[in-house]
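2024-03-11 09:14:02 DEBUG pipeline.ingest accepted 1 chain
2024-03-11 09:14:02 DEBUG pipeline.ingest length=370
2024-03-11 09:14:03 DEBUG pipeline.predict start
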Amino acid sequence: MIIGVPKEIKNNENRVALTPAGTKELTKRGHTVYVQSTAGDGSGFTDELYAGAGAQILATAKEVFEIAEMIIKVKEPIESEYKLIQKDQLVFTYFHFASYEPLTKAMIETGAICLAYETVEKDGGLPLLVPMSEVAGRMAIQEGAKYLEKPLKGRGILLGGVPGVMPAKVLILGGGVVGTNAAKIAAGMGADVIITDLNLNRLRYLDDVMPKNVSTMASNEYVLRELVQTHDLIVGAVLIPGAKAPKLITKDMLKTMRPGTVLVDVAVDQGGCIETCKPTTHEDPTYIIDDVVHYCVANMPGAVPYTSTLALTNATLPYAIKLAGQGWKKACQSNEDLKKGLNVINGKVVYKAVSDAFNLPFTDVSEFLN
């Protein structure tokens, strides 16, 4: 198969979808890999390293899209890339369709096959979302601690406190991968942490494994309205696979928070679980509403591209090898994980949560795989 790796062009997105090591794994199996020049520079991988692994280097994204049967990316295509995607071309990347209707409609119009990292599912988990959720969860605390500083309009509180002074209070909404990793870092820095979740079995598990400065609470609106009044850093870490995130923090709650409270919405890719959330960039990461600092960067792991690229490609490469070796149809017929990643095929929406999000016609994926 002919595989293309374009350079990511989203604001401050320095990750790349394939490493030189991954390139070697594909080329030694007889596949042809085209990499856009400087695609790996942000992650520390030069054109020379890709060429040494058997890739051919092309100057422009247009050349890569024109020649490739399968495009491997990190982030969803942005508007300038829509016209480059071709009918019947397989695009393997993060899409997060349910949060952005223009992207969904644009991909329908291309006639391409859109296989989304975030809905590939294995044993009830999301193996291609996990590594970036781990990075984003840990970064949420790193960034939240920074924006609690007074020069950055935060409350002016040190996350871990010091002897004789209480630490900051951190509230984490959701006990999944993001929430667990956020709690680990916040607890390690000495904060007083509460994790809320609807799943009592998950809370029991977290109660067993987390250190003593982490408490758990069953989530409901009444509890959240009470907690937001006294917490310094609030992390939104709620995910419903392939669907929009529920709005757990509403606009009216902001007025009950203390000035300088920091909100970090890691769910921003799926529309955010904070009502006042809107996507921001690493270039301009925060804004303030009702004296509350909002950090809503939609590609948080892009700020640590070396770590993120390696973590992501460790997870995606085995699937990319299957897709390249068997073609998307056979690979999805034989692999239930990949089958669940199919979101849009030849102009038809085949993932129910996406069709529900925008009231679009739904087509059962089996119509394309039989």
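2024-03-11 09:14:41 DEBUG pipeline.report The mean pLDDT is 96.
2024-03-11 09:14:41 DEBUG pipeline.predict end
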